[in-house]
Amino acid sequence: MAENPRFELMALLQQFTVETDRYVDAVSARDSLYRTDLNALGVMMGAARAGTTVTPGMLRAELHLSSPATTALVDRLDSAGHVKRSRSDVDRRQVNLQMTEKAMETGGRLFAPLAQHISGALDNFSRQEQQLLTEMMHQITAATIAAREGIAQPPPL
What is the biggest distance separating any 2 CA atoms in the chain, rounded to whole angstroms? Predict the structure, then answer.
């Protein structure tokens, strides 16, 4: 055990971030998918869990893309059979995006190995320890979001 567990934990979180990025790069290269496409599908999966409707504008904002880049992204996902476009029932000018079964299958195939390995690692912890780790991850994620939002704001004059 390290002399300073906080320092070691921070280093391990950084290493975890690097390794998950490497994993995404590896599956992207293996399956000839753009990283932005995978990020878009991740946003769409999160929105589906939250019961939120996904629009191209939402993807643009979430992924920090320009309008032309968002159009190219949605066109790629549509051509690949990963999303289906439909007009909003409320505002016919608005386009809604739904993930297809193919996208769910692709996502499962790409990320199942990672999920299985992480699940196996979590099996080494008791239910109570897993609850503590869950709370820790909630707080670390919230802190990361706060840090990102803090740097996105211009400094006060």
Answer: 61
3-state SS assignment for residue 94: coil
What pLDDT tens digit does each residue of the chain (157 aa) get? Answer: 568 899 999 999 999 999 999 998 888 888 778 889 988 988 998 888 899 989 999 999 999 999 999 999 999 999 989 999 988 777 777 889 999 999 888 888 888 999 999 999 999 999 999 999 999 999 999 999 999 889 877 666 6
Tokens found for residue 136:
């820790």
Q: The CATH number of 31-152 is which of 2.60.40.10, 1.20.1560.10, 1.10.10.10, 3.40.20.10?
A: 1.10.10.10
